Amino acid sequence: MAKMRYLVKAIGIVLLIFVVGTLIFSIVEFGFFKSLAQESILYYGLPAAFIIAFFLDLFPQYLSAHYILIIVAINKMNLFSFSVVVIVATFLASVVGFWLGRKTEEDVFSDIFGENIYTKMRNGINKLGAWYVAVSAISPLPYIPILFGAMDMKWKSFMLWGVVPRVLGFIATAIFAHYALPVILKIFGA
């Protein structure tokens, strides 16, 4: 049992380093991520959109999965199909990320911050964190399901305050991309 706990903790540390490293790299190399996403979607279509949306929501990036829908609308691709794929991918990424955070990161965060501070953070996320989760789900704030799981947020709260607003945010983005984006592009001559 001790070996299993050590393995889970090691996986948690590696995962935390990967998440932080990916976030930093995405900020430093924003143009790289942006062009990679655009070229992949234009060339590979729906499978690329699924993989990119899943990755962007599982591991927090400076680039949001909402960008996929903007790329699709600008290039006059099937916005409905891409919206469904992005919503399914981000839903799965949210659930997987939350589960990973719950299973691997609790001990890591407890060790990093100390048990007392971790307990205060965990209580805070369950008491007031729902608002941050909801706002981050639909805004440019980092949406980090792994962190919400690591803070021992309740599944029901995460689904209600994280996943539902996230899905509604993608629907709103698709509606905006379909109706308003062409008008905006026409006004600015793009």
Can you put this structure into words, describing what you see?
There is one protein chain. Helix content is 85%, strand content 0%. The chain is an all-alpha fold and 190 residues long. The chain has one domain.
Keywords:
190 residues, mainly alpha, 0% strand
Dominant shape: elongated
Uncertain runs with pLDDT below 50, 5 residues or more? none
Number of domains: 1
Number of beta-strand segments: 0
- Rg from C-alpha positions? 18 Å
Helix segment tally: 9
In short:
This protein is mostly helical and 190 residues long. It is 85% helix and 0% strand. The chain has 9 helices and no strands.
How would the blueprint of this fold be written?
Layout: H1 2-28, H2 30-44, H3 46-58, H4 66-74, H5 79-113, H6 115-127, H7 129-138, H8 145-150, H9 155-187
